[in-house]
C-alpha cells in the first residue's frame, strides 16, 4: 500500500519562512542547490526555500565570494601549506572568471565558474 500526504500534512512539513537576519546560519538552511560541470567550467544554482530570500542571497553571493568558495577545489592536498594557498589564490584571481545570473521564475542565482577545473590540473602539475 502506498502512503500519501494530504495538502494539510504537506503544508505542515514545508514551512516557508524567511531566513533570520540577526545571526549567521548555514547556507543549506535557506537554500538548496544544483551543480554540474562541463569541460573546465562549473555551474551551480542556489535556490532559496523562501523565494524572497533571493534578495538576501544576492548580497552574499558575489563574484568574489564564489571564487573563495570554489578555490578550495584547487588545493593540492587536504592540508595545504600557506605557500599552496598563496599560489592557489593568485592563480584564481588571474584566471578564474565568475558570472552570476538571476533566474527569475524560481528566484535563484546561477553561478558559472570558468576555467576552474583546468586550474586543478595546472595546480596539481606544479606540485608534483
Annotated CATH topology? Endonuclease I-creI
Strand order of the largest sheet: 1-2-4-3
Kindly name the structural category.
Answer: alpha+beta
Terminal CA distance reads 58 Å
Which shape, going by the Cα principal axes?
Answer: globular
Level-1 CATH class name: Alpha Beta
| Helix count from the secondary structure assignment | 5
Strand and helix order: HEEHHHEEH
Mean pLDDT: 84
The portion of residues forming beta strands comes to 15-25%
**How many separate structural domains?**
1
Low-confidence runs: none
Per DSSP E runs of 2 or more residues, the count of β-strands stands at 4
Which percent bin holds the helix content?
25-40%
Q: What's the Cα radius of gyration?
A: 19 Å
- CATH architectural grouping: Roll
Pfam family, one: AtuA_ferredoxin
Protein name: AtuA-like ferredoxin-fold domain-containing protein
Amino acid at each position: 500500500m502506498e502512503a500519501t500526504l494530504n495538502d494539510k500534512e504537506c503544508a505542515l512539513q514545508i514551512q516557508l519562512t524567511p531566513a533570520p537576519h540577526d545571526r549567521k546560519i548555514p547556507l543549506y538552511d535557506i537554500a538548496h542547490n544544483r551543480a554540474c560541470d562541463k569541460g573546465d567550467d562549473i555551474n551551480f544554482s542556489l535556490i532559496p526555500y523562501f523565494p524572497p530570500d533571493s534578495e538576501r542571497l544576492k548580497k552574499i553571493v558575489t563574484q568574489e565570494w564564489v571564487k573563495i568558495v570554489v578555490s578550495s577545489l584547487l588545493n593540492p592536498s587536504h592540508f595545504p601549506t600557506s605557500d599552496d594557498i598563496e599560489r592557489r589564490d593568485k592563480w584564481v584571481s588571474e584566471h578564474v572568471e565568475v558570472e552570476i545570473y538571476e533566474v527569475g521564475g524560481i528566484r535563484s542565482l546561477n553561478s558559472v565558474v570558468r576555467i576552474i577545473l583546468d586550474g586543478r590540473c595546472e595546480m596539481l602539475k606544479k606540485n608534483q
